[in-house]
């Protein structure tokens, strides 16, 4: 029987509540007739680690998890530590250290979820946003000169490389090709960002020639926000830069009902390193420690993790269990207007998995 080694990094805030829930659900799928098992190793990195050691993770942290089959991640963000420290010190360190250059964010309206878009049901919104996850606006290049002085200058330089754009375009076209509609929207801003984004557009055109069966179009990022609201069914797969896709995918999650539901994978498509799966939400300071967090984003991330491992049948079983519990308003957490607790939703998913 295959045993998958999974690194669990709950991180901070509600990450500490939803990741153990995800682990329980994965365990319920394993063993026995499933043909696979898990070996989980938890790492207590994040804000608490920072208070004790002055860093968000140990210096050899990447080495400790390099041999894992996948990573399940919660959230990095602590009310008492600046966000740029928690983000760069843990999550981005893993994404960049393991060259997880494709951030994949599926969005659908699950059954029973009251999405804010009028006249829009599950059939009208089925997107996957591909976010360039290794460079662009979050390359970390820039600085501040004359800090605090009236002549202070601060820069955040967006770095796009031909190789980096080619590989994300190819990944996005391939993903679009694998989906029924074979439809890709390349999100751009080449009217204003007239260097990197012009190269982005040129590369999209060149790569499109390799995928003659994929229909594709281009949309400016600002216009794309309006299109997501007004014509959701006109979109299927989207590809955008790090910053643009960061913003579009939070909008997507909100349009589908709640940040608490949405999953993401930080993927190394070449499989040189472990890929990392996480709910898209953060630490949720306002509800942390109260048992109110919606674990569905984590469960859906577990579906992506299982698909990545090639366990398609287990992935489908879990997705079906998720859809059954979202269909039941009694199992909605506060973010969906309900009263259910994290533990109740988790137990309900596990009960459905066991009954099958
Ligand atoms: P957030 O996602 O933590 O919270 C936004 C709102 O959504 C809050 O009202 C929260 O209660 C609600 N929410 C989020 N997830 C929920 C869930 N599972 N169930 C119920 N409600 C949920 O975003 P924020 O407030 O902008 O950020 C808080 C901290 O998290 C910051 O430190 C930020 O840097 C960090 N953060 C980390 C990640 C990450 O690790 N990938 C992502 C986003 C934010
Ligand atoms: K997260
Ligand atoms: Mn974000």
Structure description:
Its EC number is 1.1.1.83. Belongs to the isocitrate and isopropylmalate dehydrogenases family. With 356 residues, the protein is of the alpha/beta class. 39% of the residues lie in helices and 22% in strands. It folds into two domains: 1-101 and 264-356, Isopropylmalate Dehydrogenase (3-Layer(aba) Sandwich), CATH 3.40.718; 115-139 and 156-256, Isopropylmalate Dehydrogenase (3-Layer(aba) Sandwich). The chain contains eleven helices and twelve strands. The protein has a ten-stranded mixed β-sheet with strand order 2-1-3-12-11-4-5-10-8-9, with helices on both faces. It is globular, with a radius of gyration of 20 Å. The two termini are 21 Å apart. The mean pLDDT is 96.
Q: How many discrete domains?
A: 2
- Gyration radius from CA atoms, angstroms: 20 Å
Give the fraction of residues assigned to helices: 25-40%
CATH topology of the largest domain: Isopropylmalate Dehydrogenase
Spatial shape? globular
GO molecular function, one term: NAD binding
Enzyme class: oxidoreductase
Domain Isopropylmalate dehydrogenase-like: 5-349
Cofactor: Mn(2+); Mg(2+)
Topology diagram in text:
Elements: E1 2-11, H1 15-29, E2 36-42, H2 47-53, H3 61-65, E3 70-75, H4 83-97, E4 102-108, E5 126-132, E6 136-145, E7 153-159, H5 162-178, E8 183-188, H6 196-208, E9 215-220, H7 221-230, E10 237-240, H8 242-255, E11 263-267, E12 275-279, H9 296-309, H10 312-326, H11 342-354
Helix pairs in contact: 1-11, 5-6, 7-8, 9-10, 10-11
Bound molecules: nicotinamide-adenine-dinucleotide, potassium ion and manganese (II) ion.
